[in-house]
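Appendix C: a fully annotated inverse folding record. The material below is reproduced so that readers can follow the format used throughout the book. The structure is listed first as tokens, followed by the designed sequence.
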């Protein structure tokens, strides 16, 4: 069946990651829609794929496992509880419970926990458990895919929460940088199959080296890459020029990462690789900063400036909203005996940073990959509680959380959770970016609509809607018209700050490459769910092109209504076809695709790397076999 796509005025926005930290942009454009004509050959391919998936799902259902999208989800782990905005007054708390041997404690119930905020009891509204040792999503077995045909299924079963590997080269001394790349490779080589990582670096600015993936070969390639585009240098010698031990720069980077991850549901464990961690925990203490009056070994105590206090609130509020736990990993290794006092104080500072966010610090070990393994194991299984705080004021004051587990002490259990957050409203977040118009608009859009977060470059693949896509480059690049260039003006790659009472000059035309995207969506439940809700079966199709730096070049959002009748064979199955076109400026390295059911927000996403393979060459190679 072929869905009719139509233009929608709803603007699609995406973030870019520039060299300077904390600079996302928003693309506020609504490009024209296209009428859809299904391609028969592609349709046959989709049917073959979907029949394989249907058999897989039926078998899974007979085994008693829960099902979502094409693959199966672990029945012992429900969907992650989405983070509700502070205006809705729902606070999520991830609780890691381990036994004497550091292993996760299973089988606890909601009644085993009590929660207080500022020493006042809170009612637990929801309770869930993520068992990261078991697959959370198992993909179907698919037939070999034709050239340039892609399906939003991972290569292997996924497990656990999301992990961000953040290598802060600015705050790592040269002598500690030498073997980090090799230790990263060792860590990736023996990471548990299906664990999803993204890789970030702070050097001349914040750079995404690799978006979320569970493919260890892809991670290895990203770590070893020498460019072009963002890559990990062997050493970075200019740290003292780019914010070495600058608490403000460190907090800005963490806020940037939190804002990028906002809107993506569930816990994210941020493994922070660095030699120094100059981030305050609250408005009383600063670790290893270069300013300070009275001090003790390793840590300076001082009265913070108003700016620092504001940044502390913004950073910890952003980490809470995005459900991020910090796992600092010290790259200095074992400290010399004459540095013991400083090392002890630095370790306490790391413990405080991690504990405030529900993570754990690792230090005093020259085996970096071993500490990273321990961080992954510690954060892979957890309970998620949410509560509605009795104090409704959004006054930017700190709130302290205490979670108590019955019999924890007698059983030798360790309980870790976020102990601190700040009540910063969405309006305060907007004011934080009042000089960054597109960033403010983008964050507001992400808060209102989950599609903004899911269409970001490098965001995790989603499988709640299964679809395939055949992507082709149509002809040669053609010089853009004045109208097409006007449409590009709000995309991050071409955005220019507008000065009051002035009309900017038109952009210099560039050549645009047209890509045709043929979707096949498999969802037997779509029509029945729509009929039950008394609404038509509507799907949204989003496509966004990014350059090698992760900057948005252009995007398209279309809406289609699934046909209500039977197909040419008299069947009313759940296979839907749609076509979409995307005009892409020069420099494109990725095209990200999303399909969403507007009735219940189920979404599927995937990302296609450019350039595409030559289909003619692939056909010749196939015929020669």
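Designed amino acids, in order:
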């Amino acid at each position: 069946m072929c869905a009719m796509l139509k233009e929608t005025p709803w603007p699609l926005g995406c973030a870019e990651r520039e060299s300077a930290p904390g600079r996302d942009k928003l693309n506020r454009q609504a490009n024209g829609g296209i009428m859809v004509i299904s391609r028969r050959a592609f349709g046959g391919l989709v049917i073959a794929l979907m029949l394989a998936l249907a058999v897989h799902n039926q078998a899974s259902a007979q085994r008693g496992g829960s099902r979502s999208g094409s693959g199966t989800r672990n029945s012992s782990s429900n969907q992650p509880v989405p983070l509700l905005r502070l205006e809705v007054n729902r606070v999520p708390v991830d609780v890691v419970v381990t036994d004497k041997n550091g292993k996760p404690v299973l089988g606890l119930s909601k009644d085993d926990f009590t929660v207080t905020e500022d020493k006042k009891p809170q009612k637990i509204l929801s309770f869930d458990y993520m068992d990261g040792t078991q697959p959370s999503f198992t993909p179907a077995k698919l037939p070999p895919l034709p050239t340039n045909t892609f399906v939003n299924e991972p290569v292997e079963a996924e497990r656990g929460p999301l992990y961000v590997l953040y290598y802060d080269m600015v705050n790592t001394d040269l002598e500690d940088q030498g073997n980090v790349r090799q230790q990263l490779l060792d860590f990736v080589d023996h990471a548990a199959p299906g664990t999803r990582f993204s890789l970030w670096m702070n050097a001349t600015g914040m750079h995404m080296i690799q978006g979320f993936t569970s493919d260890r070969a892809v991670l290895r390639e990203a770590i070893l890459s020498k460019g072009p585009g963002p890559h990990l240098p062997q050493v970075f010698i200019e740290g003292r020029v780019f914010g070495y031990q600058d608490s403000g720069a460190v907090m800005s980077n963490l806020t940037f990462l939190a804002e990028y991850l906002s809107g993506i549901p569930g816990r994210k464990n941020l493994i922070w690789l660095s030699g120094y961690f100059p981030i305050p925990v609250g408005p009383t203490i600063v670790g290893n900063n270069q300013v300070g009056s009275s001090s003790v070994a390793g840590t300076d105590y001082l009265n913070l400036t108003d700016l620092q206090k504001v940044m502390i609130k913004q950073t910890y509020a952003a980490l809470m909203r995005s459900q991020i736990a910090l796992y600092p990993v010290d790259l200095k290794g074992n400290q010399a005996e004459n540095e013991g006092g400083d090392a002890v104080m630095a370790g306490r500072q790391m413990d405080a940073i991690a504990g405030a966010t529900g993570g754990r610090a690792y230090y005093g070990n020259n085996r970096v990959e071993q500490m990273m393994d321990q961080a992954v194991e510690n954060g892979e299984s957890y309970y998620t509680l949410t509560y509605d705080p009795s104090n409704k004021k959004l006054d930017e004051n700190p709130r302290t959380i205490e979670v108590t587990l019955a019999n924890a002490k007698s059983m030798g259990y360790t309980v870790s959770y976020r102990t601190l957050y700040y009540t910063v409203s969405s309006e305060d977040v907007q004011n934080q970016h009042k000089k960054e118009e597109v960033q403010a608009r983008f964050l507001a859009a992400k808060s209102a609509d989950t599609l903004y977060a899911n269409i970001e470059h490098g965001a995790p693949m989603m499988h709640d809607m299964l679809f395939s896509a055949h992507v082709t480059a149509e002809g040669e690049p053609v010089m853009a018209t004045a109208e097409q260039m006007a449409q590009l003006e709000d995309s991050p790659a071409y955005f220019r700050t507008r000065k009051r009472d002035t009309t900017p000059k038109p952009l210099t035309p560039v050549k645009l490459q047209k890509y045709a995207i043929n979707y096949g969506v498999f969802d037997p439940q779509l029509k029945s769910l729509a009929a039950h809700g008394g609404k038509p079966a509507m799907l949204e199709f989003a496509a966004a092109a990014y350059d090698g730096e992760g900057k948005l070049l252009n995007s398209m959002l279309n809406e289609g209504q699934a046909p209500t009748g039977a197909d040419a064979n008299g069947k009313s199955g759940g296979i839907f076809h749609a076509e979409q076109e995307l005009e892409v400026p020069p420099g494109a390295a990725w095209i990200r695709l999303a399909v969403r059911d507007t009735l219940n927000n189920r979404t599927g996403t995937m990302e296609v790397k450019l350039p595409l393979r030559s289909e003619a060459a692939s056909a010749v190679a196939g015929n020669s076999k």
